[in-house]
Design a protein that fits this description.
about 150 residues; alpha+beta; Aminopeptidase; five-stranded mixed sheet; 4 helices; globular
């Protein structure tokens, strides 16, 4: 990060961020209206899940969703980053690293023993980014939609 660039602030998402989050989701190919984002933010909040946003110069430029999953086969819960996106115009400036670092802190403070990141197989640049942050490819994920709305 150069001296002229501002370090991102990472905080919990609020309903006021819904429009910006909708735009970030669109960059990943998920066309999600802001009112739907707002409803889902409420659902996630009620479930105790976290949505974090990265702010640079007052603008939301990054997003991560994190989840805590108790599992039978590990002594501690597993933390999961299930969505991570940085606005194309804000990439390669430390925003992704800042939001992953913040996610890891939240998950560690919540008692998680490890963190998993879900990433689309086609996003090779993202995979290289995760590997630079110390993540290791360990498994393959399969999915099956249970209805057309889930696809």
């Amino acid at each position: 990060m150069s001296n002229s660039e501002v370090a991102p602030e990472v905080r919990r998402a609020t309903l006021r961020d819904s429009i910006a989050i909708s735009g970030l989701l669109a960059e990943l190919g998920f066309q999600t209206p802001a009112d739907t984002v707002a409803a889902r933010l409420g659902t996630l909040e009620q479930a105790g899940e976290r949505v974090l946003v990265a702010i640079v110069s007052g603008e939301v430029v990054g997003l991560a969703t994190i989840h805590i999953t108790p599992v039978l086969h590990r002594p501690k819960p597993v933390g999961r980053i299930t969505l991570l996106v940085v606005a194309e115009r804000a990439r390669n400036r430390g925003t992704g690293r800042a939001i992953v670092d913040a996610s890891e802190r939240v998950l560690s403070e919540s008692g998680c023993g490890l963190v998993e990141i879900t990433s689309n197989a086609a996003l090779r640049g993202a995979h290289a980014f995760y590997e630079r942050l110390g993540y290791t490819r360990t498994s393959v994920r399969f999915f099956k939609p249970l209805d057309q709305a889930s696809a």
